[in-house]
UniProtKB/TrEMBL annotation:
Originating organism: Corchorus olitorius
Molecular function per GO: dioxygenase activity; metal ion binding
Keyword terms of this UniProt record: Dioxygenase, Iron, Metal-binding, Oxidoreductase
Name of the molecule in the record: Oxoglutarate/iron-dependent dioxygenase
PANTHER family per the UniProt record, alphabetical: 1-AMINOCYCLOPROPANE-1-CARBOXYLATE OXIDASE HOMOLOG 1, OXIDOREDUCTASE, 2OG-FE II OXYGENASE FAMILY PROTEIN
InterPro entries in UniProt: DIOX_N, IPNS-like_FE2OG_OXY, IPNS-like_sf, Oxoglu/Fe-dep_dioxygenase_dom
Family per similarity comment: Belongs to the iron/ascorbate-dependent oxidoreductase family.
Domain Fe2OG dioxygenase: 212-312
């Protein structure tokens, strides 16, 4: 068990405390269930990580919300939607979509299934606890537990749902893959809109296999006894093509925009879309992958479900570089080619929140 000896630095053995925490296989929720009132030191973020940059509530700094209701029916409306998607992807790297085609009851069932997983008996959950990312379902706390600056106040389970979905019997009870299939349908539509926003044919990004892989990642952020000391998720950019995020009503997601942390408020029935590093790379910086974080909260639990469009660590020799149709003498390539697996391995190997050096810079020409 992790001891809360933050007040006695002379007795702090970080490596031992990390291992003790990991060995419980109960995650952050296990600490909460044990009744801790003082945050163990391994979770203490450096002060500048929490306080750096102000949070803005200005209306001029509000994440775009895009209505997809008529996207397949009305060519004029579709053009307007494409323009909004393009503008949001260039300026923000983030936007929310409503009327996206996934019924509210499906969203709610997915969230309920995540809560049920985390709130079941620890002995049941422990069978999924592992740091072997080749397993069909991986449950643990912090993929970068031993390399990060501080442990994030969250637990996670995830599975690769495409191109090689797990067997039904390997998935936790309540997770039948139905949500991820609907997200893939939405993802294909988004790839069309993003392609058109780049001035390409609608199927261009899909034919590049940008929608071929999908990982579903389910986060659980319990109420934190000292949220002013911790983060739910450190500052980072996603290492995929793009992400579809379902978040509950509690909030806490923030986007770094013009050197300010901007809240992404939950909107009922909406999904958050953000551009990943790989799409910034192949668009040659036309679209931007923006750093974001999740603050810890005292009310929890906060639940979110992120679907990452990427083949990730799946072996694939296909090389991705700036799309040739977007290049010119005035817009030469800014990145060297890479495989998705090489990019994912480099990015993940660094852990979250590497100050001043985004993974993408490593691939810049």
């Amino acid at each position: 068990m992790v001891t809360g000896n933050a007040s006695n630095p002379d007795q702090y053995d970080r490596a031992s405390e990390l291992k003790a925490f990991d060995d419980t296989k109960a995650g952050v929720k296990g600490l909460v269930d044990a009744g801790i009132t003082e945050l163990p030191r391994i979770f203490h973020q450096p002060a500048d990580k929490i306080q750096k940059n102000s949070v803005s509530g200005d209306t001029q700094f509000s994440i775009p919300i895009i209505d997809l209701a008529e996207v397949e029916k009305n060519p004029i409306t579709r053009k307007e939607i494409v323009d909004k998607v393009g503008n949001a992807s260039r300026k923000w790297g983030f936007f929310q979509v409503i009327n996206h085609g996934i019924p509210v009851n499906v969203l709610e069932e997915m969230m309920d299934g995540v809560r049920r997983f985390y709130e079941q008996d620890d002995e049941v959950k422990r069978q999924y606890y592992t740091r072997d990312f080749s397993k069909p379902v991986v449950y643990n706390s912090n993929f970068d537990l031993y390399t990060g600056l501080a442990v994030n106040w969250r637990d996670t389970f995830f599975s690769f749902m495409a191109p090689n979905p797990p067997k039904m019997e390997d998935l936790p009870p309540g997770h039948n893959g139905g949500y991820s299939k609907q997200v893939q349908t939405l993802g294909n539509l988004l790839l069309e809109l993003l392609s058109e926003a780049l001035g390409l044919k609608p199927d261009h990004l899909k034919e590049m296999d940008c929608g071929k892989g999908l990982a579903i990642v389910c986060h659980y952020y319990p109420a934190c006894p000292q949220p002013e000391l911790a983060l739910g998720n450190s500052k980072h950019a996603d290492n995929d093509f793009f992400t579809v995020l379902l978040q509950d009503h509690i909030g806490g997601l923030q986007v770094l925009h013009e050197d300010k942390w901007i809240n992404v408020p939950p909107a009922p029935g909406s999904l958050v879309i953000n551009i990943g590093d790989l799409l910034q790379l192949i668009s040659n910086d036309a679209f931007i992958s923006v750093e974001h974080r999740v603050v810890a909260n005292s009310v929890g639990p906060r639940v979110s479900v992120a679907c990452f469009f990427s083949t990730s660590i799946t072996p694939n020799s296909r090389l991705y570089g700036p799309i040739k149709e977007l290049l010119s003498e005035e817009n030469p390539p800014k990145y060297r080619e890479t495989t998705v697996a090489d990019y994912a391995n480099y990015s993940s190997g660094r852990g979250l929140d590497v100050d001043g050096y985004k993974a993408l810079l490593h691939f810049r020409l």
